[in-house]
Write a structure and sequence with these properties.
By secondary structure, this protein is an all-alpha fold. The protein has 2 domains: 179 residues, no CATH class; 139 residues, no CATH class. Helices cover 76% and strands 0% of the residues. The chain contains 13 helices and no strands. Helix 1 runs antiparallel to helix 9. The longest helix has 59 residues. It is rod-shaped and about 135 Å long.
C-alpha cells in the first residue's frame, strides 16, 4: 500500500465519521420533531426549549407554594371518606335497631288494642318512638311480659336517641370538612389554572406537556453540548433537507469504501470530494422529485391531504438520501430521462438523439468490478 492510498483511506474514514456524527445529530433532532408532531399536531413539531425551561421553573415554584394546600386537601378527602364509611355503618345499625323497635312496639299495641294514628306510625324518630312507648307504659292492665318489653324498649329508645345525636354530630363535622374542602379546592384549582396556562404557552395541547418535556430533556441531556436540542428548534423543512444531504453523502461513502478496497483503479482525493458533492446533489434532486410526485398524486386524487415537512418520517427521508447517494449516476440518468420525456411531442424528442456514454472504469464502485472480471 502506497502512502497516497493510505492517505485516501484516512480521508475516507474521517469523512465517514464526520458524516455519521452530523447525520446522527440531525436525525435525532428531526426524529424528536416528528415525535412531537405525532403527540401534539398543533405544535407542528416545534417547541421552544428556552420557553420550556422558563415555564418549568415557574411550574415548580407554583407547585412548591401549593404543596401545603394540596396536602391539606388530600387529608380532608381522606377524612371525609372515613366519615362517610363510619356514617354508613352507623346508619345501617341504627336503621336495624329502629326496625326491631317498631316491630316490638307494634306487637304490644296489637295485643293491647291500641289504635295508632297514621302520623304517629310514620314517625320513626327516637322522639316519636319514645312517645308511643310512654303511651303504652301509661296504659293500665298491661300483662307483666308487655310491661317488661316496654321497659326494655325505653332503654333501647334512649340508645337510639344517642345514636341519632352521634349521626347529627358527624353530619355537622362532615359539613365543616366539606366547607373547608371547597375553600382549599378553590386555592388548588387557581394554582392548577396557572400551571395549565404555563403548560399551554409551550404546548397548546397541555395534557401532553409532561411527556414532551421528558422527551425534550432526554434529547438535550444525551446530545453533545446540547447540539441536538439546538437543531430541534430549527424548521422541519430545513432539518429534512440537511438530513437528505447528509444521507446522500453517506450513500456516496458507502459507494466509495468498496471502490477503495476492491477497485483496481485507485480512488483519488478529487473523486472523494466530487463524489460526496454529487451524491448530495442527487439525493436533494430525488427528494424534491419524490415530494413533487406525492403532491401531484394528492392534487389528482379526490381527497387531498396536506403534506408538510413536519409530517415526513425521518426514516423515509434518510432512506431516500442513502439510496440516491449510492445510486447517484442511476438517479441522475433516471431524472434526465424523465425530464426529456416531459418535452417530447407526439412521442418524438425535439432534440437529436444522444449517443450512449462510454462505460466508466467501474460503474458500480467496488461492489461489482466488471473490468476486473473481464
Amino acid at each position: 500500500m502506497t502512502i497516497y492510498k493510505f492517505s485516501v483511506g484516512v480521508v475516507l474514514a474521517v469523512a465517514m465519521v464526520a458524516v455519521l456524527g452530523l447525520a446522527a445529530l440531525v436525525f435525532s433532532s428531526r426524529d424528536f420533531q416528528f415525535g412531537v408532531q405525532q403527540i401534539s399536531p398543533s405544535t407542528n413539531g416545534l417547541i421552544s426549549f428556552a420557553q420550556l425551561d422558563a415555564a418549568d421553573r415557574q411550574i415548580r415554584q407554583l407547585e412548591g407554594e401549593s404543596a401545603g394546600p394540596r396536602g391539606e386537601l388530600l387529608e380532608i378527602d381522606q377524612q371525609i371518606a372515613s366519615l362517610d364509611t363510619q356514617v354508613q355503618g352507623a346508619e345501617a345499625s341504627t336503621n336495624e335497631a329502629r326496625a326491631a323497635m317498631v316491630g316490638a312496639i307494634a306487637d304490644i299495641e296489637t295485643r293491647s288494642n291500641v289504635q295508632t294514628g297514621e302520623s304517629a306510625a310514620a314517625d320513626m324518630t327516637a322522639q316519636g318512638l319514645s312517645q308511643r312507648i310512654n303511651a303504652l307504659a301509661a296504659r293500665p292492665g298491661l300483662p307483666p311480659a308487655d310491661q317488661q318489653g316496654v321497659a326494655q324498649l325505653r332503654v333501647q329508645v334512649q340508645q337510639l336517641a344517642s345514636q341519632e345525636e352521634a349521626l347529627d354530630d358527624r353530619g355537622a363535622e362532615r359539613s365543616a370538612l366539606v366547607a373547608r374542602q371547597r375553600l382549599v379546592s378553590g386555592q388548588v384549582a387557581e394554582v392548577n389554572r396557572r400551571v395549565f396556562a404555563l403548560q399551554q404557552s409551550v404546548v397548546p395541547d397541555y395534557e401532553h406537556y409532561t411527556r414532551i418535556r421528558g422527551e425534550a430533556y432526554a434529547l438535550r441531556s444525551m446530545s453533545p453540548l446540547g447540539a441536538s436540542a439546538f437543531l430541534a428548534q430549527g424548521h422541519p423543512a430545513l432539518l429534512s433537507t440537511i438530513l437528505v444531504l447528509l444521507m446522500g453523502a453517506l450513500g456516496s461513502l458507502l459507494y466509495l469504501f468498496p471502490a477503495y478496497l476492491n477497485r483496481p483503479v485507485q480512488v483519488t482525493m478529487a473523486e472523494i470530494v466530487v463524489r460526496l458533492i454529487f451524491g448530495m446533489c442527487a439525493a436533494l434532486a430525488f427528494y424534491v422529485l419524490a415530494n413533487a410526485a406525492i403532491a401531484g398524486f394528492s392534487i389528482a386524487s379526490s381527497v387531498q391531504q396536506a403534506t408538510t415537512s413536519s409530517t415526513l418520517n425521518p426514516f423515509t427521508v434518510s432512506l431516500v438520501g442513502i439510496v440516491a447517494g449510492v445510486l447517484s449516476e442511476d438517479i441522475a440518468k433516471w431524472i434526465q430521462d424523465r425530464g426529456r420525456g416531459i418535452f417530447q411531442q407526439g412521442g418524438v424528442s425535439a432534440s437529436a438523439p444522444v449517443s450512449p456514454p462510454a462505460p466508466e472504469a467501474a460503474p458500480t464502485g467496488g461492489l461489482v468490478n466488471n473490468n476486473a472480471i473481464s
